[in-house]
Each structure stands twice: as structure tokens, then as C-alpha cells.
Design goal:
Blueprint: E1 3-7, E2 10-13, E3 26-31, E4 34-39, E5 44-47, H1 51-63, H2 65-76
Antiparallel strand pairs: 1-2, 2-3, 3-4, 4-5
Length: about 90
């Protein structure tokens, strides 16, 4: 699963051709023992994250919304996508 970004102990990834389980454009997040699938609009689709991490992730997603949708469009077509800057 290619990595999009990494910050505040979270690893954010996106799968190629990942339209089967969740129909919304989304990312996969790992943070310590937590894992979640999160739609680019911020909705938690599966799994869970601590509240503070969710808020940081959602802030990052707002800042990088266009890049996330571009990465998603590439990923569903099995095209390489660029990494996205971490939250600073």
C-alpha cells in the first residue's frame, strides 16, 4: 500500500484500484494500535482513531483536499501518485 504521508505518529496510505469495499474516495491510516479508513471528506468509514488524531488528520485533509482527490483519481487508474506534505 503506497504511502501518501506520515506525521504525528500516523501513516497515511492509499491503495491502487481500491473501489470495492468503500465507494467513497478514501485513505487508510495507521496510528499505533489503531487503523481506520477515512473518506477524503473526513467521514470514518471503518476502524477508529483517537479523537486528537482524527482532528489532526481532518485538518490535514482540508489543507490537501485537491492533492488527495488527484492521488485518488490516479490510484483508481493504477497510476503512481505523489506524496503529500505532512502537517507541520
Amino acid at each position: 500500500m503506497p504511502e501518501l504521508s506520515r506525521f504525528e505518529g500516523m501513516i497515511i496510505r492509499m491503495l491502487f484500484s481500491d473501489t470495492g469495499q468503500h465507494s467513497k474516495p478514501h485513505i487508510h491510516v495507521e496510528c499505533a494500535e489503531y487503523q481506520a479508513s477515512v473518506a477524503i471528506d473526513g467521514e470514518i468509514l471503518a476502524g477508529s482513531l483517537p479523537k486528537k488524531k482524527i482532528l489532526l488528520l481532518q485538518a490535514w485533509m482540508i489543507l490537501h483536499e485537491d492533492e488527495l482527490y488527484q492521488a485518488w483519481n490516479n490510484a483508481v487508474q493504477n497510476k503512481v501518485f505523489d506524496r503529500i506534505a505532512p502537517l507541520r
